[in-house]
Amino acid sequence: MAAAADVTFQRNILIKAAFGSAALIALALAVFLGGHVIAQQIISGLMLGAIYLIVAVAFTLTIGVLNFLNFTIPSLFMLTGMIAWALLKSGLLSFSGSWSWLIALFGGVVVATVASLLVERFTYRYFKAKHGDATEHAIPLVSSLGFLLIFENLVILAFGSESQRFPVPFKADLHLFGLVIGIPQIVSLVSALIVVAALSYVLKQTKIGRALRTIAENPEIASLLGVEVTQVVPVLFLLTGMLCGLAAALFTVNYGDVSPFMGDNIGTKAIAGMVLGGIGSIWGAIIGGLIVGLTETMSVHFLGGDSVEMVIWGLLLIVIIVAPRGLFGHAALGKGKL
Amino acid sequence: MSGYASGIVAILCINLIFAYGVYVTAAAGQLNLGGAGYQAIGAYAAAVLSTQGWTPGWGTIPAAMIISALVGFLIAFPVLRTRGVYMVLATFAFAQVVSGVLLRTSLFGGAIGMVVPDYLPLSVLILAAVLTTLFVFFLMASRFGLAIRAIHDDEAVATIMGVDVRGMQVTVFTIGGALAGLSGALYAHYFSFVEAQYFNPNLSIFVLLFVLIGGTQTAWGPLAGSLFFTLIPEALRIGGSWRFVVFGVTIVLMMAIRPEGMITRTLIARISSLFHRRPSSSALSLPNARPDLPDARMGDQHAK
Hints:
The complex is a heterodimer. By secondary structure, chain A is mainly alpha-helical. Chain A has a domain at 50-262. Chain A contains 11 helices and 4 strands. The longest helix of chain A is centred in the first third of the chain and has 65 residues, at 2-66. Chain B has helices at residues 3-27, 35-52, 60-79, 84-104, 122-141, 143-153, 155-160, 165-191, 201-214, 220-236, 240-257, 265-276, 280-284, and strands at residues 114-115, 193-194. The chains are: A mainly alpha, B mainly alpha. Chains A and B meet through α3, α4, α9 and α11 of A and α4, α9 and α11 of B.
């Protein structure tokens, strides 16, 4: 039994290593054949992927622990950007001088986190209290669709539906071997990786992480073992709000545009990345997010702008049907994840 | 009837048929978040057939139904390999692919859309909506309806009772595709114009919400859901974004108060007991009348 598990484990490592090196070789080959243009595309793809992967991690956390596809995530993303823009525009932050953009983004993240906790109160906690278990059916999913509508349209009512310019404070580009790399882009990729590494550590090593993994395994047994499920689950939504807020802040600094619909596209692409990598796996979400980012820039480059949706969703449909576990997914959702 | 009123009635009829298309799969416990994809196939099939003149007269509508039923049938096999959240995502991805293909293909007019030459009067829409409603009521009252109810409640038990679970699931996807395609064809002919952007993820989400909020236990559910969400905003004269805020609040409240939807079997039993003068206790002790059990289940993700 243990030996069999060991063999599977080794095979998994081998598959991952093979996959990783194949990807690296493919990228190197692409750069070798395509030169600077392709290298530039790859860099842009990875930067875009960095934003997708943070949102994908947020999705995979809620779905992995609670079996709940949280559709409010796109609206949390959008809330961060729009609130930050509104704060900056209102002039409340003029005291802080040249750092006001950062404080505005921080304010946006706080609002998104509070909104996420509000969602927890009315989806998970409510149904837990009423039905004893909120993870087995679509009710939280439907409620979260309701919250998506509420948040998005309240923002439209408050700030209008146009896309707004968020003044980016630094415009420094790095020129490296003839490639243009934006400093915000580097910051976003690096901070995405740091945050996700920190999250992995928290899940693996800390008490709260163990509690979350126990709930992922089985909420009832978790509470029998002394995990205060009703107190631990809000932490998950706190993390979701903060991850979405971080992704949105990076996106806003990178692209300098906010709109009430900015979350929709990012959210659906992040779902695609999560499924590609395997639902419930953090490393899967990271790899999947990067793949979606790369696929997007590559299909824009080779096939034209309107092909992106078709390519990504076609890929996803094939993955769901042929290998529903994704690249790093586990056999049963709700078992042995994270 | 004024143009305003007839526009609302037309949208109501189209939404109702569309909602029944999603309902027949939801009644068997399969959540279809790709309704817009099936509707788009019906709408574009009717538009292309009508423009190219390949089918005589109103032959476009049954032809569009057959095409979308065929797509529903074929897509059911891969989609039914998935369960729960995966099925929601697979159907969602399917709709995205359909919309991407429509945008990219010049035969379908790309992003510009297509003008549909033949105009359909409102009376045909109303007739189609009434016939669809009667058809679904008949379906749910038949042995077939009993079988899909059994699948919805417990697939394993349904198999033991001799229900061909897989065959039934493929059938509901085919019927669902046909009804969604019908609503698309009617949309194309009534509004004389189709564009791929109309069949977006929001449309799929809304129609699924009509069904889930209305209730999946009886065929009254989609009727109540479509009527409620099409007529209430008009009656309240609220427009633009407030309409969606109210919609969102209603969804959250409904899920909190009546997670099994507006119309449930218990409610039907209670109402019919008023008219049949039966002792109300017998009506309320129906084996399925379990208001404490939430209806919209995702299927089993956790291995038991």
